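Chapter summary example: a protein plus hydroxy diiron-OXO moiety.
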Amino acid sequence: MLSKKVQAALNEQIRIEAESSQVYLAMASWAEIQPGIDNVTAFFYKHSEEERQHMLKLIHFVNERGGFATIPPLPQPQLTFPSIKHAFEELLKHEVFVSESINKCVDIALSEKDYATHNFLQWYVAEQIEEEALARIMNDKLELIGDDKSGMYLFDRDILTISLNVENSK
Ligand code: OFO
């Protein structure tokens, strides 16, 4: 059985994962109408879908442990971006924020002596290490590329391979 405090923290995390999915979905839709970045677009759609899976995993966990997972309303995310680089900067900022929020959940689970939730959350802790690392790699590459169009061509060509390599290095 979940304590009230743990349930509230996990429901807040459900909201954050849902919001992350929306934020990246907006990036995907914006990227889709920019010329020549089909793989960047696919990356954002995939990332949005992954966040939805993170949310669903939490919903099932809360409900299976005798709690009630509540589905939150969501604010409209940022719809347009000055550049691809800017979108990836926002992605990194967002992932750092998500990691902090996961850490808060871990703290609460420990303070409530809820070791099952603590154990469950370790998957998210590991996932965040990977997602932050990936976001940093993308930002570093975009920093190097600057305004170089051929660099951007290569970035779009390689982005899905890079993200697969980071996933597989777990
Ligand atoms: Fe990328 O955030 Fe979920 O966990």
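Key point: Residues 17 and 54 are 6 Å apart (CA to CA).
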